[in-house]
Design a protein that fits this description.
Elements (H helix, E strand, L loop, with lengths): L13 E4 L2 E4 L5 H18 L3 E5 L3 E3 L7 E3 L3 E5 H4 L4 H4 L8 E5 L6 H13 L4 E6 L4 E5 L4 E5 L3 E2 L9 E2 H5 L9
Length: 180
């Protein structure tokens, strides 16, 4: 039987990264707005093919490694990969999400994020997307390559077929919109 690292549920969540328990950063405005943007857009894209959720705890293990909890900011899990899982089993599934989105926070440790991306990809996530509000970039990494989108580029990735957007549109979600 495979060893599982069990951590208590906390707010913010705790994950297992680089051999230790790490609490996720408490999100600030930019993080929350970008997380909302991704939830809404991915949910529309995923209609009929799977479920999209925020802060969904997955228990993942690359081959030959311990099962550990990881909690992407936004996750998509296809109905196909859920197969016949019960509602109870899918609460904290023993598989990696198909798509994981992480929104960088000012206090995030770069090495922790890189480790999380690595574990998710090796555990079966088709694409991990890292959004950096400070640099206005999006990194997409899969098992073959990583690509950084910036400036006025359009995001697209085979792991999210038919899902495209201009980075300027996504980062426009951060603009302060006060009533006139």
């Amino acid at each position: 039987m495979q060893h599982e690292i069990v951590l208590p549920e906390t707010r913010p969540e705790t994950e297992w990264l680089r051999g230790r328990a790490v609490r996720k950063m408490s999100p600030q405005r930019d993080h929350a707005l970008l997380q909302k943007w991704w939830l809404m857009r991915l949910d529309t894209w995923a209609d009929g093919r799977g479920e999209v959720a925020a802060e969904w705890r997955f228990r993942v293990a690359p081959p030959g490694e311990a099962i550990r909890p990881l909690v992407p900011d936004v996750s998509y899990l296809s109905y196909e990969r859920m197969r016949d899982a019960t509602v109870t089993e899918i609460q904290s599934p023993f598989i990696a999400p198909d798509i994981a989105v992480e929104i960088r926070s000012p206090g995030d440790n770069r090495r922790d994020i890189e480790a999380k991306v690595d574990v998710l990809v090796r555990a079966g996530t088709g694409v991990v997307i890292i959004v950096n509000p400070r640099t206005r970039t999006v990194l997409a990494q899969d098992g073959m390559a990583r690509r950084i989108f910036s400036s006025d580029e359009t995001f697209e990735h085979p792991g999210v077929p038919g899902f495209t957007f201009a980075l300027t549109e996504m980062f426009d979600a951060l603009r302060l919109r006060r009533p006139s």
